[in-house]
Write a structure and sequence with these properties.
The complex is a heterodimer of chains A (396) and B (363). With 396 residues, chain A is α+β, with helices and mostly antiparallel strands. Helix content of chain A is 45%, strand content 14%. By secondary structure, chain B is an alpha+beta fold. In chain B, strand 9 and strand 10 form a beta hairpin. The chains are: A alpha+beta (396), B alpha+beta (363).
């Protein structure tokens, strides 16, 4: 065990820090669902320097570096410490691009990956349906073969960014007579195709973070498929493993903890710092121990990835524990703020832009989404502990 | 950058695991627990043969000169087997002697600790946990008076390292005139805890170095080793629960196929796995990251106290009625975890220390 970086990495870290110092004036502000011109310019600069799309081949618009997990971590750390916006991490970049790299045709890779990486082409994900949540493979949106096209009818839900997206990667049942996991195809098509209707889905936070998407006789050429007909389930699983890695990130929990420490140092109750209130302090320390645990767990995963060893249980627990921890951190901030903690919607005296209530509500969605806590426990018990698998009762 | 155990560390842990499987199986643990005092000479001898008491003794004095992470891996394995043998006492005594002992004291005692010939008890409960019953030890003119409670590895001790109220450290032979030793009986019959009452006892001060800093290191390392002990005991409880759930049938199915039971096991694993990383990190910090040593030791102690309690009750529940019987013997681990939690600072105390270590509140 040795947590020090050796010399080549400290040199690399200095390079990244230098870059961030000299380009501070070009850093864009955060925006909504579509990257601004400023963000696209920043993203292009990051790809050029290898701080975004680092290991994606140059032929597909990436930087083309050899994978080096420590360098990736150093980049992330240096950007976080400088408060600099990192490379774009939308669903197209995080989920579609790795899938195309693994399973796309050469034409799909060369035409779709470069503009996606730059942030010019925005994607949404059409997986979940009202009747297909945890049991995603039971989805019923159907694509009928008319010879040249699939004619798509059905409904998707939880489609974030659908209203702003150019394209969708979508799971559609194209082989109605095949067993449920073998009748699905992974289709990619324009959101401007006639017959698509997007309705915003208002959530408890007060914002429409998701959408419902309705398809009525949407005509998609049969060539716009990734992988073969009926292989969509396996293509999608290649993507889902990329999504689970994004949820439960311990660095996000660490940043939240620091913000709560500031609250406890600066806010007062009856003139006394919250930090001097033993009950809040005790809860803060309980959560700090969990944050440090998850960071240390992250170091284990990092070492395993570097050595190309399986991560085992340490990897399986990240989504469950990480999302729960983030939720509990938001709860502590709310509790420590007392009545101030419920101020929202831009109220006078609202703290931190109402972000703690927003997170508390939004994170409940993250505990449910991307594989519910209960599904995660099944996975931990079955794959991690070798316990009996759930019976597969549903037959389609 | 590498956060994993070395092949040597894994081999050392495996070899202790196999030894304890052989010399201290559950039936032997049961016998030991029925004794008046928890001592098991053959377990102690087996540990000495593997070099366990030598782990934190410098090589110059006949030890192995290894790190706190190595010691923590041994503690984890001892916890896994609910092993009855002094470990924490000799390990912390070696730290005290190494940091504050005179050359003469080191030359006499460190080789004896390393070889396992002399075991030590350690009396630092009052400075580490806070004083109960107004206990405390005063040092005046080379003599100790007062009372020290919850002395670790009490029964086998040839001598004790005793902290006084000002943070001074003293060496007191077990047969020192004026010293009254009383065993305290805890829920855990696999380790010995006792009380020392000092009536003007002539003691040897450990004269060198900064004894307060040494005492802090003893507390921190002790906390890490107790956390590791709990990790091992809890991991074993989880493994036993999972194995039982694969075997036990009710309603015509193995109970491990019921989601209610699977989820209990998943929750235990989800709590334990990051706790393991925390124990490694805290143990590594004791030697490599001095600025984080007190903070991470306090967090490891408190967090494993809580995770251990959760696993201990949940694993017992997976077994159902048989879980609470001596026939099964799961309760030895349950009680081991229960004792670990309270010693050298229960969770609330340790978390307060973690806050102090960051300057959030005054000491």
């Amino acid at each position: 065990m040795d947590l020090a970086y050796d010399a080549t990495y400290t040199v690399f870290r200095d390079e990244v820090r230098d870059f961030l110092r000299t380009h501070r004036d070009r850093m864009p502000k955060r925006s909504g669902h579509r990257p601004t011109d400023e963000q696209i310019a920043w993203q292009t600069l990051l790809i050029e320097h290898g701080y975004a799309a680092r290991t994606i081949p140059e032929a597909y618009g990436g930087h083309g570096a050899e994978p080096d997990i420590l360098k990736s971590r150093i980049i992330a750390e240096a950007f976080a410490e400088a408060g600099a916006p990192g490379g774009l991490a939308n669903q197209g970049i995080s989920m579609l691009v790795p899938t195309l790299l693994e399973l796309g045709t050469e034409a799909q890779k060369t035409t779709l990956i470069p503009p996606t990486l730059r942030g010019e082409l925005v994607w949404c994900q059409g997986y979940s349906e009202p009747g297909a949540g945890s049991d995603l493979a039971s989805l019923t949106t159907r694509g009928e073969d008319d010879g040249e096209n699939f004619i798509i009818n059905g409904q998707k839900i939880w489609t974030s960014t659908a209203h702003a997206a150019d394209m969708i990667f979508c799971l559609v049942r194209t082989e109605p007579d095949a067993p449920k996991h073998e009748g699905i195809s992974y289709l990619i098509f324009s959101m401007k195709t006639p017959g698509i209707e997007v309705r915003p889905l208002l959530t408890m936070t007060g914002a429409a973070e998701f959408n419902e998407v309705f398809f009525t006789d949407v005509k998609v050429p049969k060539t716009q498929i990734v992988g073969g007909r009926g292989q969509g389930w396996f293509v999608a699983n290649a993507t889902l493993k990329h999504e689970r890695g994004m949820l439960g990130d311990p660095n996000a929990a660490h940043a939240r903890l620091q913000a709560i420490i500031e609250i406890l140092k600066t806010e007062t109750l009856d003139g006394q710092r919250l930090m001097d209130h033993p009950l809040y302090l005790d809860r803060l320390m309980q959560l700090q121990a969990r944050v440090i645990s998850m960071q240390a767990n992250g170091l284990r995963l990092l070492t395993a990835a570097q050595r190309k060893e399986p991560v085992g249980m340490a990897g399986l627990i990240v989504k469950l524990q990480g999302c729960e921890l983030n939720h509990q951190l938001a709860a502590l901030a709310i509790d420590a703020l007392g009545e101030l903690g419920v101020l929202y919607h831009g109220s006078p005296h609202q703290r931190d832009g109402g972000v703690w209530q927003h997170r508390y509500m939004f994170d409940l969605g993250l505990i449910i989404g991307g594989g519910t806590a209960q599904i995660q426990k099944n996975i931990i018990a079955e794959r991690g502990l070798g316990m009996p698998r759930e019976p597969k009762l549903a037959k389609v | 950058m590498d956060f994993a155990l070395s092949p040597d560390q894994i081999a050392m842990q495996d070899s202790l695991d196999r030894t304890l499987e052989r010399v201290a199986p559950l039936d032997r643990v049961r016998q030991i627990a029925a004794q008046d005092l928890p001592t098991a000479p053959e377990v102690r001898a087996a540990l000495a043969e593997l070099g366990a008491p030598a782990v934190l003794v410098p090589e110059a004095h006949g030890g192995l000169g290894l790190g706190v992470l190595d010691a923590a891996l041994l503690a984890e394995t001892l916890g896994r087997h609910t092993a009855c043998a002094p470990f924490l006492g000799p390990a912390l005594a070696a730290i005290a002697l190494d940091l504050c002992g005179s050359e003469g004291q080191k030359a006499v005692w460190l080789p004896l600790i390393a070889s396992g010939e002399a075991s030590f008890g350690v009396a630092i409960s009052e400075p580490a946990s806070g004083a109960r019953m107004a206990a405390g030890v005063r040092a005046e003119n080379g003599r100790l008076s007062g009372q020290a409670l919850f002395v670790l590895d009490f029964a086998d001790a040839a001598a004790f390292i005793v902290a006084d109220e000002t943070g001074g450290l003293h060496l007191v032979p077990a047969d020192a005139p004026g010293l009254t030793r009383t065993a305290l009986t805890t829920i855990d019959r696999t380790r010995s805890v006792g009380e020392l009452v000092f009536g003007e006892v002539l003691a040897e001060r450990l004269p060198e170095g900064d004894s307060r800093a040494a005492l802090a290191r003893m507390r921190d390392v002790g906390r890490v080793l107790l956390a590791a002990d709990t990790l091992g005991a809890a991991q074993r409880m989880l493994e036993r629960a999972v194995a039982y759930a694969a075997d036990r049938k009710q309603f015509g199915r193995v109970i491990g196929s019921f989601q209610a039971v699977k989820h209990l096991c998943a929750e235990m694993a989800a709590e334990l796995e990051p706790a393991r990383a925390l124990v490694w990190y805290a143990a590594y910090a004791q030697d490599a990251l001095p600025g984080e040593a007190t903070l991470t030791a306090a967090h490891a102690k408190a967090h494993l106290g809580d995770v251990g309690r959760f696993v201990a009750r949940t694993a017992t529940e997976v077994f159902g009625g048989i879980g609470i019987t001596d026939l099964l013997g799961l309760h030895y681990a349950f009680k081991r975890i229960g004792l670990d939690r309270q010693l050298l600072g229960a969770p609330e105390r340790a978390r307060r220390d973690a806050a102090v270590a960051q300057g959030f509140i005054p000491a």
